[in-house]
Amino acid sequence: MAKGLDVGTMNIIAAERNGDKTTLTQQRNSYVEIEYSEVAEKMLSRSDVLYIRKDNQVYIVGEDALNFANVFNKTTRRPMQKGILNRDEKSAIPMIRLIIERLVGEPNHDGELLYYTSPARPADDPRQDVLYHQKTIESILRKLGYTPRVINEGMSVVYSELPDNQFTGMGVSFGAGMTNICLAHYGLPVMTTAVARGGDWVDQNVSEATGHTRDKVTAFKERDFKLTEEPESELDSALTIYYENLLDYIVQSIRREVEAARVEEGMTIPVAITGGTASPKGFAKLFERKLRAANLPFEVSSVKAAKSPLYSVALGTLVAARAEEEEHLEEAPTPTPAS
Ligand SMILES: Nc1ncnc2c1ncn2[C@@H]1O[C@H](COP(=O)(O)OP(=O)(O)OP(=O)(O)O)[C@@H](O)[C@H]1O
Ligand SMILES: [Mg+2]
Predict the structure, then answer these.
(1) Looking at the whole model, is its pTM more than 0.85?
(2) Lesser CB count within 10 Å: N end or C end of the chain?
């Protein structure tokens, strides 16, 4: 058995195989701090709420953070920002540890293989300490008894979406805190990069431009927004402007990084896209148009949108974990029957 884990700025998702079924479990990567009270105690008595109590303060973590925030009129906070652990949040590590423990549980056997995602170092913010983030997650998983292996988030997209093309092509994950990009050749990463912008950047800018709160912008975006040539409302227009701007920025970054990596010219490759930010209708078409106009050193054969944009990265980590596990099984010497 082997497991996969997608550690995202907004969502953490675990993937596991049970018989011939794949199980996905999900938690919000957020928490809220409230004061301990009788009301709080009642709400906390529900057995599945994840929380940490420290003197008179209680931290509610994961899926339930938003409910508690609404009842107690507080705002939620995030252990991660822009794809990695937030160094300004002192409690980030215990919070994320709690979420990960709940999601992956105990290993099925000691040293069970577990692939977890990490972003690439963002090209537009190279000071981001991706290594520290990676090692912290690794240490949480190791303490639980797993053998952790890190996989680049863009590579994970290639694993989940491009098996029919021998894991060759470009995978792009449009997340909340980051956009991750990987160009792969027969299952090996040739170029990985990221930009420190994603859905959060869109929400923040639209909120500043329109005066609506960030939460309102996010809710509208996730429920009602589609990318069309003629936006209907003020929020539609503002979201379209920042989506366009985000995609131009990402495509330029891809062009620069591909050129710097000196990948072979003249190839024709498929591009697979996923991540919550790639969900709106019209997104794939717009991205394809911008990619084709960018004068890249390779031809884009098609842009393929993942069926489940929130889950395909997690599914890719499971494909990678199972592939390594099978390799080990093949390598293991066959026991000779006792005579
Ligand atoms: N239907 C939707 N339409 C538009 N945006 C959406 C939709 N659903 C989710 N999102 C946005 O997608 C982002 C979350 O996506 P995802 O879960 O892929 O990110 P993440 O993996 O947590 O973050 P990252 O990979 O950047 O660390 C958020 O910005 C969220 O608002
Ligand atoms: Mg992600």
Answers:
(1) yes
(2) C
